[in-house]
């Protein structure tokens, strides 16, 4: 028998650690492991690039960033299943388990593949390993998704360097960080670097996200720092705020999105930092605020970095966990590792909402951890700053942090 592995979506630190650990776990028990390049594309073409993975290959890749198995966001249509499915691949190689590494879209497609094979009289187990640097899959007990810890760590090092540049040159920098649905990465990096303003979609829990509100939050921090006689700073904004903008706001901002196979706006094709910095510069000119700011995009720089120790161990346990779940007869599930290192199956149906989709795990903006950063580290205008702020703007209440967000 053999096991097939594919990787879907975008890369995250630890991909190779998961794959390498799966290979080591299965091959030591005499089970072949086949790596499918180009994600699900390989299951829907006869000339799929399939490679047998052995110990030497696993030992070479396990601690490296990126993904040895080429990835793809390909999402098969119903027609693909009818006419293009490569059933011969499964039969010729006696594949009994399909392991997928990816996000919720990759997991959902794995269930479709398993159901298709059952209907064809060829039942195959499927086990999914969840990954995303966005940390937005609702794993139990606040467990992170693999890759997030490394992305946060490397992102914080980059942001700290940018902060030092801001201090040295007395300029401002605007960082746009990845985070399609949730602001975990931006909030984590901003917290680690003591950035004066962090803007994530979860902050707008009592107000609609608009371009003006986003801009005014940043200007609020800039004015506050001027009052403190600090003429530099760095702000970080989660790209997720752009996903939450209404069509009217998007049109007002001049954002033109293309969409991927899963219907998600391809924000990677647009520099959110450049776009937002231009909106800020327009605001400076309107109110006569003398500030220089520079855009920095942060996302792709942290996806293929070598995993830190935490993710090396975590991903090793996830890979080993796949073997244990398979031997235990589990299928149609994700592998879950708790803080003690215990492995258990986590079924998609247990995470799905009423609409059948997995709701993203959001930053809890009201818990003590978040409020500690907001109240003690971030800097912004409040009512007690109005008199001092009038030196720079005539209407400081517009830049009142709590009023912008409709917070009491």
Layout: helices, strands, pairs:
Layout (H helix, E strand, L loop, with lengths): L1 E6 L7 H13 L4 E5 L13 E3 L2 H7 L16 H6 L3 H6 L2 E8 L1 H16 L5 E6 L17 H22 L2 E6 L6 H9 L4 E3 L11 H17 L5 E6 L1 H4 L3 H7 L18 H16 L5 E6 L10 H19 L5 E5 L5 E5 L20 H9 L9 H4 L11 H5 L3
Parallel strand pairs: 1-2, 1-4, 4-5, 5-10, 6-8, 6-9, 7-8
Antiparallel strand pairs: 2-3, 10-11
Round the mean pLDDT to the nearest integer and report it.
91
Number of helices: 15
**Which series of helices and strands comes N to C?**
EHEEHHHEHEHEHEHEHHHEHEEHHH
CATH architecture of the largest domain: 3-Layer(aba) Sandwich
Radius of gyration: 23 Å
Largest sheet: 7 strands, mixed
**Helix fraction bin:** 25-40%
Strand order of the largest sheet: 3-2-1-4-5-10-11
Return the domain count.
2
The CATH top-level class label of the largest domain:
Alpha Beta
Uncertain spans: none
Measured between the Cα atoms of the first and last residue, the distance is: 62 Å
Number of strands: 11
């Amino acid at each position: 028998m053999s096991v097939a592995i594919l990787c879907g979506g975008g890369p995250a630190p630890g991909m190779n650690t998961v794959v390498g650990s799966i290979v080591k776990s299965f091959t030591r028990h005499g089970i072949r492991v086949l790596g499918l390049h180009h994600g699900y594309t390989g299951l829907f073409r006869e000339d799929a690039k399939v490679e047998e993975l052995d110990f030497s290959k696993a030992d070479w890749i396990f601690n490296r960033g990126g993904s040895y198995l080429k990835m793809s966001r390909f999402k098969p249509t119903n027609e693909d299943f009818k006419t293009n499915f490569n059933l011969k691949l499964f039969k010729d190689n006696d594949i009994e388990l399909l392991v997928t590494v990816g996000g919720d879209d990759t997991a959902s497609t794995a269930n479709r593949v398993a159901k298709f094979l059952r209907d064809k009289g060829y039942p195959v187990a499927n086990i999914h390993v969840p990954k995303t640097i966005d940390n937005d899959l609702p794993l139990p007990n606040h467990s992170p998704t693999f890759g997030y810890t490394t992305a946060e760590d490397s992102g914080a090092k980059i942001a700290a360097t940018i902060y030092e540049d801001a201090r040295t040159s007395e300029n401002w920098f605007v960082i746009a960080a990845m985070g399609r649905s949730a602001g975990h990465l931006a909030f984590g990096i901003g917290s680690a670097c003591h950035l004066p303003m962090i803007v994530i979609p979860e902050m707008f829990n009592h107000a609609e996200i608009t371009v003006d509100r986003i801009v005014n939050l940043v200007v609020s921090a800039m004015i506050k720092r001027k009052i403190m006689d600090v003429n530099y700073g760095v702000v970080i904004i989660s790209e997720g705020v752009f996903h939450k903008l209404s069509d009217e706001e998007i049109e007002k901002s001049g954002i033109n999105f293309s969409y991927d196979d899963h219907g998600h706006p391809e924000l990677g094709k647009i520099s959110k930092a450049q776009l937002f910095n231009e909106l800020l510069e327009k605001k400076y000119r309107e109110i006569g605020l003398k500030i220089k700011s520079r855009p920095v995009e942060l996302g792709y720089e942290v996806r293929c970095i070598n995993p830190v120790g935490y993710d090396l161990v975590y991903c090793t346990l996830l890979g080993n966990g796949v073997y244990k779940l398979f031997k235990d007869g589990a299928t149609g599930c994700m592998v879950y590792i708790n803080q003690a290192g215990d492995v258990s199956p986590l079924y998609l149906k247990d995470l799905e909402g009423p609409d059948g989709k997995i709701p993203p795990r959001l930053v809890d903006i009201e818990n003590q951890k978040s409020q500690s950063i907001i109240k003690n580290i971030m800097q912004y205008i409040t009512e007690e700053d109005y008199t001092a702020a009038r030196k720079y703007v005539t209407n400081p209440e517009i830049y009142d942090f709590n009023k912008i967000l409709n917070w009491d």
